[in-house]
Amino acid sequence: MSSSTNNTPVPSTSSKKSLKVFSDDIWKNKTAKINAELFTLTYGSIVSQLCTDYERDFAKVNNQLYSMGYNIGVRLIEDFLARTALPRCDSLARTSEVITICAFKVFLNVTPQVGNWSSNKDSFSLFLEENPLSEFVELPMDAAKELWYSNILCGVLKGALEMVQMDCDVWFVNDVLKGDQTTELRIKLNRVLKDEIPAGED
Amino acid sequence: MAIYSFWVFDRHCNCIFDREWTLKSNQSSGTTNSKLNEDTAKLLYGMVYSLRSISQKLAGNEAHNEIRTIATGKYRAHILCTASGLWFILLSDLKQEDLSHVLRYLYGEIYVKTVAHNWLSPIDFAESEAEKRGQGFRKIRNRNFLLRVEQFLGPMVN
Amino acid sequence: MAIQTILVINRSGGLVYQRDFLPSAAKLTSNEYLILAGTLQGVVAIASQIAPKSLQISAKQGAKTGSELGDATQTVPYVGSLGSSAASAADLGSFLGPDFFNESFTSWNTKGLKHVTTDQNSLFLYQTLTGLKFVAVSTQNTTNAMAVSIAENLLRKAYCLYADYVMKNPFYEPEMPIRCELFDKKLGELVAQL
User: Fold this and answer.
1) Helices A58-84 and C145-161: crossing angle, nearest 10°?
2) What Pfam family is a match for this entry (chain B) (predicted)?
3) Does B97 touch chain C (CB under 8 A)?
4) Which of C116, C161, C111 is nearest to C140 (CA)?
5) Is B21 buried (19+), middle (13-18) or exposed (0-12) by CB count in 10 A?
6) Any alpha helices (H) in chain A, and if so which ranges?
7) Residue extents of the structural domains in chain C
8) Which of 99-158 (B) contact C at CB < 8 A?
């Protein structure tokens, strides 16, 4: 994975480091914390309830998780910005740093690795080494093929990025729950919604 | 001290004088009464006009509530609205917190003395009906006015 | 400096929240407030269009030297704190911390409208990256840098309250007028502490 992170455009180590210190501080001192098991159980019960409600039609469950995530994302971004007061990112590379080092850290206390940049630098992958959502999960046989257990994350990222005027596609490529080697989440920037960027920024 | 530009609007919404300095290091740089500034003048007028209407509303019916300054992250606009409907506007950097005395001087000592007291200069720069509806193009070309503005504001540019 | 009114304007220029804090403040009709919000939305855009030429020239010449993540972490005076003020709750370990946002911050809205003074009032505006605008009207005209920074931090805290009590309220519909009692209450407390 370290080889794939090497092709990150302009890996500004110093800014990355200060972002890390900054994020650690927010996580340590400025974040309300609750028990992680309670969180994992809550999410698990939602997913399993959805599977029941949709009569084990896992494509529908994926969609439902995604749209729930989207609705969370459009709200959560305000919390993120209010909390961090970070500026707009000047490049997608910077966006990837802020998402992994700052956002994932602050909200989930994990830091995914960034990698697999596309050649034109418009898409990248997040590798989740640990995933608080699926800590204790084993997928049942019928779900293993189709269900993206943590699909809510895609929705959250989609919604949050859209609110800062970045139109992106977000989807899971691999999940260790399905027997893959890694849990990989892909983000592809379609375009920046220039017209919607609020007036007054550089 | 750093000022960026100076504008005068008459009561017909026309810009009758504009002076913009483009280089901090050079007092004589920039433009005077430039055609290129027409659009900027309109935007500036629109901004001040909108904010004036807001400030009037905020004050209720009781009193005048004229607008004084407008600040963005990059510059500050200082505004003097006279009862006769003239607007004097100075754009400066953010360190200048209050230039109302400068505007008073520009009005009382420069405009009044070189334009209003000058019988050979028009005081209403709109000569036809259309010009009174914002189509005006006439500017203050009075040499004394130009000279004294330059003398007074020039040293504040850098 | 007394805060007369606080407004929240959504990203399309619609007024979603308005609250008067002084009984003496001039009463505007709700329609007038809506117009005011729309006007401000326009003015923010205009203000960013007419930056002086000399600034544009010097910006092109000088390389950008913006330091990231403002190094100054001085505490902002006079702005009240959020969160539980009851010390007893904190002793038992409230999951809400006392106040997370005491250090000052940089507003990234660099070109748009920030601050207007008139004979009687000051109007402060804080715009978020999502295009939301928080506006405060105070009863004193001042261009003092300290006052501006206090007001900006007040609005930033109002944004934190918004993120907590409006965006996290599952029954609030985004972009719609804010009717959240908790937000009202907390905002009232924040302004009262000023």
Assistant:
1) 160
2) Sybindin
3) yes
4) C116
5) buried
6) 2-5, 13-29, 36-53, 58-84, 92-97, 105-108, 141-144, 152-163
7) 3-23+33-47+75-81+95-192
8) none
Region A13-27+34-135+147-193: CATH code: 3.30.1380.20
Q: Decide: A131 and A110 in contact? Cβ < 8 Å.
A: yes
CA distances A129 to A33, A137, A175, A176, A181, Å, are 21, 15, 10, 9, 10
B36, B74, B81, B93, best to mutate vs chain C, most C CBs in 10 Å = B74
CB C152 within 8 A of CB C124: yes
Amino acid at C191: V
Distance, in Å, from the CA atom of C11 to the CA atom of C84, rounded to the nearest integer, reads 30
Whether the predicted interface score ipTM is above 0.90? no
Q: What pairing do the DSSP bridges indicate for beta strands C113-118 and B31-32?
A: unpaired
In single-letter form, the type of residue at position A99 comes to: I
Chain B residues near residue C47 by CB distance under 8 angstroms: 47, 70, 72
Mutate to test the interface with A, among C101, C127, C130 (most CBs of A within 10 A): C130
Tokens for C89?
């709750």
DSSP C75: B
Chain centre distance of CA B78? 9
Q: Which of the 8 DSSP states describes residue A3? A: H
Task: Name the average pLDDT for chain C.
Answer: 76
Asked whether the predicted pLDDT for residue C74 surpasses 60, the reply is no
How far is the CA of C82 from the CAs of A23, A34, C170, in angstroms? 21, 19, 21
Number of C-beta neighbours around residue C95 at 10 A: 10
Among B28, B54, B64, pick the best mutation site for testing chain C contact (most C Cβ within 10 A).
B54
In contact, B57 and C36? CB cutoff 8 Å: yes
Contact A160, A69 (CB under 8 A): no
Fold of C3-23+33-47+75-81+95-192: Beta-Lactamase (3.30.450)
Contacts of B23 in chain C (CB under 8 A): 54, 57
Mean pLDDT computed over C59-74: 44
Condensed to tens digits (0 to 9), the pLDDT of residues B14-70 reads 899 999 998 877 888 888 888 888 889 999 999 999 999 888 888 776 667 889 999
CA-closest candidate to residue A104, choices A30, A182, A20? A20
Domains of chain B (ranges; CATH) run: 3-156 (3.30.450.70)
Chain position carrying tokens 């630098």: A121
CA dihedral A48, A51, A56, A60 (to 10 degrees): -140
Q: Tell me the pLDDT band of C23, cut-offs 50, 70 and 90.
A: confident
Please judge whether C111 and A201 are an interchain contact, meaning their C-beta atoms are less than 8 angstroms apart. yes
Angstrom distance (rounded) from CA A158 to CA A167: 8
Tokens of C118: 């008139």
Q: Report the distance separating Cα A123 and Cα A96, nearest Å.
A: 10
- Tell me the pairing of strands B76-81 and A113-115: unpaired
Residue type for position B116: A
B51 and C116 in contact (C-beta within 8 Å)?
Answer: yes
Quick check: C109 contacting A, CB < 8 Å? yes
